Amino acid sequence: MHLFVQKWIPSGAVPDQQTLSGPILKQEAAKVEDQLKMKLDERLTTFMTDGWKNKAKQSIVASMVSVASEVSSGIKLSITCTHLNLQPYLMCMHDVSEDAKSGKGLLKLVTKDIHIRKM
Predict the structure, then answer these.
(1) What is the pLDDT of residue 85?
(2) Rounded distance between C-alpha atoms, residue 93 and residue 86, angstroms
(3) What pLDDT, on a 0 to 100 scale, did the predictor assign at position 91?
(4) If you ran DSSP here, which 8-state letter would residue 75 be given?
(5) pTM score, two decimals?
(6) What is the per-residue pLDDT for 1?
(7) Most Cβ neighbours (<10 Å): which of 34, 106, 107, 111?
(8) What's the angle, vertex CA 97, arms to CA 94 and CA 98, rounded to 5?
(9) Rounded CA gap, 43 and 66, in Å?
(10) Cross-sheet strand order for the sheet of 59-76
(11) Over the chain (119 residues), what is each successive 10-residue block's mean pLDDT?
């Protein structure tokens, strides 16, 4: 990365790992969270979870939400139907490798993630 910047943007400075993983990451994550909250505001949403193991054999549970972005009505064979265009968004990912796998544990995660959605 440093070589690329030196070659193509000689006056540019590359932030170090501490800066990228600290204040810059927090600032960018806050922006994404704010944008998601705006998109979810007063919209029809569907909440879902999924779990899997990654390449490092960690158990991961993700929470996602699909948001109705647009509603269009049409008449087909004298029947009114509504089509929703759904846009999925990743809300949270949890490493549950150390946790006992149970319905109660998943319910705690889901409840916490739904609370985040309502904030």
Answers:
(1) 72
(2) 21
(3) 84
(4) E
(5) 0.59
(6) 67
(7) 106
(8) 110
(9) 10
(10) 45-53, 59-76, 79-95
(11) 78 81 88 81 82 94 80 45 70 91 90 75
- Please report the pLDDT score of residue 81 as a whole number: 47
Sketch the domain layout of the chain as residue ranges.
1-42, 44-119
Please give the C-alpha separations between residue 10 and each of 1, 17, 98, in angstroms, as whole numbers.
12, 20, 46
Tell me the C-alpha distance between 14 and 6, whole Å: 9
Query: What is residue 15's predicted lDDT score, i.e. its pLDDT?
Result: 80
**Token reading at 115:** 């609370």
Asked if residue 26 lies in contact with residue 19, where contact means CB atoms within 8 angstroms, the answer is: no
* DSSP code of residue 103: H
Between the CA of residue 26 and those of 17, 19, 89, 101, what are the distances in Å?
Answer: 13, 10, 19, 30
